[in-house]
Amino acid sequence: MTDTPFVQIRHAQKAYGELEVLKDISLTVERGEIVAIIGPSGSGKSTLLRAINDLDPLTSGEVILEGVQVNKQLPHRQYEKHINEMRQQIGMVFQHFNLFPHLTVRENVTMAPKLLKGLSSADADKLAEEQLAHVGMSERIDYYPSQLSGGQKQRVAIARALAMKPKLMLFDEATSALDPELVEEVNLVMKKLAEEHMTMIIVTHEMDFAASVCDRVIFMDGGVVVEEGPPSVVFQNPTQERTQNFLRKHLAQYAEGAK
Amino acid sequence: MGLDFSVVPSYADALLLGVIWTIAITVASAVLSFFGGILFAVIALYAPLVLRLPFRFFAWLFMGTPLLLQLFLIYFGLVELGIDLPAFVAGVIGLGLHFAVYNSELIQTAILAVDKGQMEAARTLGLSRGQALVRVVIPQAVRDVIPPIGNNMIALLKDSALVSVIGVSELTLSAQLAIGRTYRPFEFYAVAAVLYYVINLGMEAVLRRIERRTQLSR
Ligand SMILES: Nc1ncnc2c1ncn2[C@@H]1O[C@H](COP(=O)(O)OP(=O)(O)O)[C@@H](O)[C@H]1O
Ligand SMILES: [Mg+2]
To answer: Engineered SS bond to A31: which of A6, A105, A147, B20, CB 3.0-4.6 Å?
Structure first.
């Protein structure tokens, strides 16, 4: 079974009515691999990412995690049980954090492990302390999200996802909603996860980050994968014209912004 | 003939007892209307049609007919069906369900207004839809409608005077009994009004405190 890919997406298609958002996408991700998905807005990056944990179900195609199909066709009840189990193994971080505002930082982190894994309060507290230390948020453990900066919120959201001990982490523009000076603290946490060989699929428009952290870059446009390869190849010697155009625009913008 | 408040003190005990009953029936009905409101909101939004349709009818009944009539129906009407409720219980059920329907309307709107990302984040962690509703969505919806629910509870306090007609010896009935003995309607109704006002101030203080407590959690 060693040749079974860790994550496998096969012939993923997604349409909203007439609008085809994903057009027959197939790709694999190996265990421990860190993959960046880049591409213009509206190209289907979020839709693809959200199909992996079946948050946006595919119209057709398969998502397979460690040989188990995530988006299995099952009777409603069985599907619910199955998908809840699968999702426990797949962490997700959103652009707008989506922390639970009515719960403290500690409760945000402990809720799911307590509820779904039956952790005792003491064990859950220990887990929260560990996970929050990992993202540098120990001092704010009893704060409410409303008392945190955007960067701090996102770090807590990462800790909340990690507390379920996922096998795979999905990031959908985790730093796009942050003020520029808060981006780095979140990037540092993601780099740390990369060093620990967490498997990650990262939708981002930060080319620098993708180049320095990711093993592979996937460029999407118009619902298809236009080009993929190691960052050195995709960023320095892209073969497709669409990739070249995108990068020219994006890197120019980036260079201008950096001045 | 002039006003004479000197007769009031000799009825102080009866009036105080009336105040206690008014508070008791208001608190009991408020609790019922709060949890009933959450339950009704969940039924209205998520229950299967076989539950939702009778519920619609029931909600219409409670919103579209006079509360006084509902109290009569529960207290006198149900006796014919062999259900003989004590007046206090009938009053709590009537007031509680009536305001539960109003609270439910508020909570339904608030549930639908909770950011979709909240349900998504909860589902992503592996919570079922039901777990996400109970742990994540409903608490935020309820938090968001504390002020208008508070207004409903003030209205409930005032409407609690209606249960005097089924013989719950709350403040209004206590005042009426005293008037029956003394023929001093202005004095006792005025004193009762002041007492309602004081209970009202107390309720508002409690509501403000609850609101303040939820300040950080938004
Ligand atoms: N719920 C939806 N209904 C209709 N169209 C949608 C919906 N969600 C996304 N889309 C469309 O799908 C396309 C891809 O969106 P998305 O995956 O969010 O792109 P990206 O993340 O790359 O910016 C866009 O054209 C978007 O308008
Ligand atoms: Mg997107």
So the answer is: A6
